[in-house]
Design a protein that fits this description.
This protein is mainly alpha-helical. The chain has 14 helices and no strands. The longest helix is centred in the first third of the chain and has 36 residues, at 87-122. The chain folds into 2 domains: 2-73, no CATH class; 93-309, MetI-like fold (Orthogonal Bundle), CATH 1.10.3720.10. Belongs to the binding-protein-dependent transport system permease family. The chain crosses the membrane at residues 12-30, 99-122, 134-162, 174-194, 235-261, 281-307. It is a multi-pass membrane protein.
Length: 319
């Protein structure tokens, strides 16, 4: 098990390091001059030259990278060129808000997706199964931005039940705080739940036809016991693994939802950084998403190995 974990950790380190190099090179290749972003477009050549010298922008590219990477390893992500604030707190604040959406959406997606998948499998071929499949197909066919716009128009515009956009802190009141989270979370859930439902349904159908489930039924066990103690436990293995990956997908793909709902999370901050050419914020934000996605993959590998030891030992035998 330890060798398996060490090997997976090595993969995470390699992916993050490779992405750090790629992020730095891409941001350096973006058009525009950082010095002009700081000093303004009407700055004199002397002012621009002074800023370039202070920031080391004329140094070789590899020197700039090692300076940036070394500072990042010590927790110093630099200063925002536009907002004038340290990048670390900016990223952590926005990341915390995005993580709130992602965790809430993932929890609801897991509960609803597993429930619907089990019901569809148990009622295979009946009206419940067909209804759930129709819902899944509809959910998969609709892009998230369209779901978000429909929710805004219907729930906020027509019915007036919830605020259309924005965010308030918990200190403003639990009801107000929760009301600003409902539609963004629902949009994320509707975008993912069909995938989890379909996977859980397929896994449950496969498990229900397994020999050990038939043997349990032949022993006269109650159907509820067969379903939940024997079938569901094994049918959850692929679903739990995919849910760990979905958290990384949520954190990486939350930009659309945050933009539509004007939610001040990491995705919206990255859009702002691109528009304003705020390279320190952009570099740190994309690196944070990379780390989260890599850790989500690691969590999925570990969950799969714990739930199904054959994966763990199979990997050890082949390396």
């Amino acid at each position: 098990m330890w060798a398996y974990l060490v090997r997976r950790l090595g993969h995470v380190v390699f992916v993050v390091a490779a992405m750090a190099v790629l992020i730095f090179l891409i941001t350096q290749a973006m058009p525009g001059n950082v010095a002009y972003t700081i000093a303004g477009h009407f700055a004199s050549p002397e002012q621009v030259a002074a800023i370039e010298a202070r920031l080391g922008l004329n140094d070789p590219l590899w020197t700039q990278f090692w300076r940036w990477a070394g500072a990042a390893l010590h927790g110093d992500m630099g200063q925002s060129l536009v907002m004038g604030r340290p990048v670390g707190p900016l990223i952590s604040e926005a990341l915390g808000r995005s993580a709130l959406l992602a965790v809430a959406a993932l929890a609801l997606t897991a509960a609803l997706g597993i429930f619907l998948g089990v019901v569809a499998a148990v009622r295979h071929g009946r009206w419940q199964d067909r209804l759930i499949l129709a819902f899944s197909w509809l959910s998969i066919s609709l892009p998230q931005f369209l779901i978000a716009i429909v929710l805004v128009l219907l729930v906020a515009g027509t019915l007036g039940w919830l605020p259309a956009t924005g965010y308030v802190e918990l200190s403003a009141g639990f009801g107000a705080w929760l009301s600003h989270l409902v539609m963004p979370v629902c949009t994320l859930v509707l975008g993912l739940v069909a995938h989890v439902t379909s996977l859980q349904r397929s896994s449950m159908l496969e498990t229900l036809s397994a020999l050990y489930v038939r043997a349990a039924r032949a022993k006269g066990l109650r159907e509820r016991t067969v379903l939940y103690r024997h079938a569901l436990r094994n049918a959850l293995i692929p679903t739990v693994t995919v849910l760990a990956l979905d958290f990384g997908i949520l954190m990486g793909g939350i930009v659309v939802v945050e933009t539509v709902f004007s939610y001040p999370g990491l995705g919206r901050l990255l859009i702002f950084a691109v528009e304003q050419k705020d390279l320190p914020v952009l570099q740190a934000g994309v690196l944070a998403v990379t780390v989260i996605y890599a850790l989500a993959n690691l969590a999925a590998d570990i969950a799969y190995a714990i739930l199904d030891p054959r994966i763990r030992y199979g990997n050890l035998d082949t390396h």
